[in-house]
């Protein structure tokens, strides 16, 4: 195990009806609120009205930024920053899924920075201050509700980049499983894949002697695999939705990577695909991850054997390590297919004409990943096998 | 799963040599420090000198309270409170095991309270303010390094009680596995039992649909069982000590009980024993816990079947649920015995003459526990079977 720091000050408020605590949770931070949300789903579900009623209980002045895209755009973030400055916003409240939360984080950091918020994504500047943020989550997927990370896209230049800081941890996040009952089937699928992919990035590591972290990661995977299918079978299954929501938070709240070297190459590759084609992040990950696994498993087959046996229950009897590892990778693909996720870029109408550009962009700062350091040729091979 | 709140702002700084960051970690809180520690072990190990050197780098004025007992006493806590008031202490630094940390928490809360600090343990008052606390942990056991709880004893009246508040979470805790290399064998044993017992209290529950919490708890147990034996075989095994230390923290940092009803009856019973006989907490738990299990398992045998099969690898083939459950309980006792923990109160020279008094005290506020609500007769029966 390596040395590490663990610090996560977000307060998670979890359970049915917890939006009723929103007013009291926001109150300490001020009354000039920027409400950030996506499309009309929170209006159709009645959540918008409930949030506004809560903010009225504390006499808040609410400014709104709606229309956050599934891959939130720099231009939209900049609109939010302009509102914050003009209206002297004191608190940013994100109501929605991971994209909305990510946009809110970028807005909160950008509002107190004189330069271009994009600077934070290209290491031109470090976040020194941010407006406080709170969230009401409506989708189990990104883990953004309990971490200090965000991903935004510069659509004009077809770039998708991340920013991160302890200063943009949400002060609180309200997680009501009932708010996820109405999530459409395809978004539930993408969320499941996203959560599992977050775990994969922190599970396939060469760091030795990490029994607790390994088992925690396997715990999240086993919970998602089982409850994901239950949530897809019955969207209003409270317990399945609750377990999926909690697993999504733990997949990326800093618990899993303590003391280990994470990978994150597959996310890097997927970002290049969705930057150009604007596909759902989860769909891209479902396509690419098993191909990444096949490309890298020989670098540490014992880790993939553990994955196959503990997570997928592969019987090792009479099999070589390579066979066990490959059976685990096949089980991953089979699960993704069973829940309705795509297996090839072709299914999404994406051909091979941009492979070089994507591979080039993915390694623009040098090789990516750590389980196997991927150069441009590796990335291209993985994308090629994903067509 | 039930509704819950999760909030833990302690910063964990984990790894070899991390005491070198102590000065910088304390600095934001002030320079008038109360250093709280136990016996001479931190002087013999050189840790005391290292801590003092770190505090000198920030020009701190250090007052000392040493001699914290294994079951920290109210009278000692009151000495610390007096120093805090007199010397206008700004920060309480605990260097030691769980008892030292618990004493520091009680001191930090008592210092800013006009009444008797004991009031917090008997619900006569609620903690409204506390001095900030930091810790350097030297023993894997209580989890006190990352929670807001403390247990202190009123030795004159033979009472042992807990206090708790979000205000006494340590601001930071430094966990260096190397600092635990020199922990004597019996204290390592007690720590292992203590950690496992914390998990048991949060594992045996009737709350349904808690797959993630269950697997997290099993992860901690499996890690402790394996690494506990390794640490006992070789006290300087860094990885074993590191895994044990991390497991101890996760056993009681608020991760395991989210959304479930915990039990804590066995801790309540053990507190009555160690309040009278001043035995090590871990020793008392090792004796009592398997007997509690036998007394209650029929209330929810399926939970004990899961425990037996997943944690102890009991083969269920051809066995009834009761047999599987009992095999898991026997495996627990066998493990405790294998690592050298006591199995009976008799081994510690404790007879049956105080059973009534202990049972009476344990249920003074009504029945205890939740897996099975224990009345005085239940507690007495469990103690009787522990003689």
From TrEMBL, chains A, B:
The keyword Oxidoreductase applies. Gene3D superfamilies: 3.40.50.1970, Dehydroquinate synthase-like - alpha domain. Residues 188-386 form the Fe-containing alcohol dehydrogenase-like C-terminal domain. Keywords: Oxidoreductase. Pfam families: ADH_Fe_C, Fe-ADH. PROSITE patterns: ADH_IRON_1 (PS00913), ADH_IRON_2 (PS00060). SUPFAM superfamilies: Dehydroquinate synthase-like. It comes from the Bacteria. The keyword Protease does not apply. Residues 9-177 form the Alcohol dehydrogenase iron-type/glycerol dehydrogenase GldA domain. This is Iron-containing alcohol dehydrogenase.
